[in-house]
Write a structure and sequence with these properties.
Layout (H helix, E strand, L loop, with lengths): L5 E3 L2 E3 L23 E2 L2 H9 L8 E5 L7 H4 L6 E5 L3 H10 L7 E2 L15 E5 L5 H10 L6 E7 H7 L10 H9 E9 L4 E2 L6 E8 L9 H12 L6 H4 L12 H5 L8 H16 L1
Length: about 280
Amino acid sequence: MLCLKLSINGHYGNPPALGYLRPMDKVRAKKHLGQHFLNDRSIAENIANALSGEGYDTVLEIGPGMGVLTQFLLQRNDFKTHVVEIDRESVEYLNQHYPALHGRIHSDDFLKMDLTPFGTFGLIGNFPYNISSQIMFRMIDYKEQIPEMAGMFQKEVAERFNAKPSTKAYGILSVLLQAHYDCEYLFTVHEHVFTPPPKVKSGVVRLKRKADFQIPVDPVLFKQIVKAAFNQRRKTMRNSLRLFNLPDGLQGWDDFAKLRPEQLSVEAFFELTDIISKFRNS
């Protein structure tokens, strides 16, 4: 059972007499949690409606804060909404203001919690900028359970998801996400609709898992190759993949060795992974 304490001027104390819990008017945005609370209800509604609800009957919202997005998710009758929130003050606020969420508020760290009990679910959120890439990597790890995601990110990060080869935005997340998901950039959100306002614009994206999301190569090796390549993105593949000890003259390898990672499409990374896998097993 969740134990709540009274919040007075932002400080936790003992509850007053007779077990009365004073309603909280707001939650303080905390810089160390990367919190920027969205104030625009129409934007929140558009994000909530970005989920199709197809193929799942549960949605997990990350970092609901004061529930500006949650309120519209709860209006959807095609799925049940769960929220995961690491901020104890936000958990207290949600318990007081959203009784419909009773039993579905998870006071936990999304990056560490076990997602298996949720079964197949959609993912959504106004994601904290400081951990947004980590959230996406975790989504990839649980891709069998997550057929769809809609959410808001720092614009620069959001643009990486569907970036094309030979562009500045194209990188590790571009390749790994596009290998499993169809990525769509929906719209841009300006700074003034947040409290406190961030220093950058935001972007809302939707990812739908591909029908053939199981890639045709060893997924562990594929991820290792993509990360190794882009960790030294200014170097040629011959230098960035030196740890794989690939010999010159290896069939197919010489065509990749002189390229830089941003020049390789997702399919090219599949082909390169297959070459390295066969070399290791020879």
